[in-house]
Design brief:
It catalyses: Hydrolysis of terminal non-reducing N-acetyl-D-hexosamine residues in N-acetyl-beta-D-hexosaminides. With 334 residues, this protein is α/β, with parallel strands linked by helices. The protein has helices at 11-17, 35-48, 78-84, 88-107, 138-155, 185-189, 194-201, 226-236, 259-269, 280-289, 296-303, 313-317, 320-333; strands spanning 24-27, 54-57, 59-61, 64-65, 113-114, 160-164, 206-209, 242-247, 273-275.
Length: 334
């Protein structure tokens, strides 16, 4: 999964999108001007590639919301966790509406899915998680995560839980550092992993592992570890969904070497698709040095990430549920 720099595709972008190793594209705030423009961009992407091509975005809400103008202002997930302590039933309803509204609006401009929800536990330590999490109680994160995912799925969007097995207990940001979490597997299973395992039982579609090293379990970051992906995630937890790497350009991935080496290591560990963003030379390094190989298991998994309902935006705005969801979210944002 690659990225592009501008509001429209360049000829170089089109050449990269046509490469047989490229199966998806992630959009950022720099690719967004307004709803019509980004809808035209996604249309142009699909004119270059067939319908099986995936288009994604990070549209969590709060400080991680790439599409803002003409989109609902989504509150951070912590707002739902705070509400849960006062009214758990209402918080569950609002979590459903948050997930449904996010998914519906994203799909209305031709995007298949958002990398959401964050299922990390907020331990009051992390510089990068914080209010992106539902909160600090694994049971609350599990419950609200289930409601949120249910809303996404009713809207026709597959859900991606991140950042397995948990990034919330480490201060350092893996975008700019190589974080280490010294806890044992039992400690992680009873705390950070619980929201992932609970939502997996309800059909979580995909997982994004963290670029965090857990030395009690393996010397490699989770996204590059066969122990984490094959032994724990697949075998022990029984997960059969998609595994996306986190961005290979992050500092937490640098231990593996050049971009092509990072991609090879992540795929070898068991990732179905790797993300290479914000570094065109790094993307080219991967495309020049990674062999094209058919992996029907991964390809079948990835097809589950296609949007089920690419709404027309005008039709969406006439939808009674959309209007109700907008009002609900406005209550959360004050």
């Amino acid at each position: 999964m690659v990225d592009v720099q501008c509001l429209v595709l360049t000829e170089q972008d089109k050449d990269i999108l046509r490469h047989p190793l490229v199966g998806g594209l992630i959009l950022f705030a720099r690719n967004y001007e307004n709803a019509q423009q980004v809808a035209e961009l996604t249309k142009s992407i699909r004119e270059v590639r067939a319908d099986d091509f995936l288009i994604a975005v990070d549209q969590e809400g709060g400080r991680v919301q790439r599409f803002r103008e003409e989109f609902s202002s989504l509150p951070p997930l912590k707002t739902l966790g705070d509400l849960y302590s006062k009214n758990s039933e209402l918080a569950g309803l609002f979590a459903f509406q948050h997930g449904w509204l996010m998914a519906t609006e994203v799909q209305s401009v031709g995007v298949d899915f958002s990398f959401a929800p964050v299922l990390d536990i907020d331990c009051g330590i992390s510089d990068v998680i914080g209010d992106r999490s539902f909160g600090g109680d694994p049971d609350v994160v599990s419950e609200l995560g289930k409601h949120y995912i249910s809303g996404m799925r009713q809207a026709g969007m597959a859900a991606t839980g991140k950042h397995f097995p948990g990034h919330g207990a480490i201060k350092e940001d893996s975008h700019i550092a190589c974080p280490v979490d010294d806890r044992s597997l039992d400690q992680l299973l009873n705390n950070d992993i619980k929201p992932f395992s609970d939502t997996m039982r309800d059909g979580l579609d995909a997982v994004m592992p963290s670029h965090v090293i857990y030395p009690e379990i393996d010397e490699r970051p989770a996204g590059f570890s066969t122990v984490w992906i094959q032994d724990i995630l697949r075998a022990r937890l029984g997960f059969d969904g998609v595994v996306f790497s986190d961005d290979l350009g992050m500092e937490g991935a640098s231990f593996a070497g050049a971009y092509a080496d990072r991609a090879k290591a992540a795929l070898r560990a068991g990732c179905d698709m790797v993300l290479a963003c914000n570094n065109r030379s790094g993307v080219e390094n991967i495309l020049d040095n990674l062999a094209v190989a058919e992996n029907t298991v991964s390809q079948n998994r990835l097809q589950r990430m296609k949007a089920k309902n690419l709404y027309q935006r005008e039709v969406m705005q006439e939808n009674v549920h959309w209007r109700e969801a907008v009002k609900t979210i406005q209550q959360l944002t004050g």
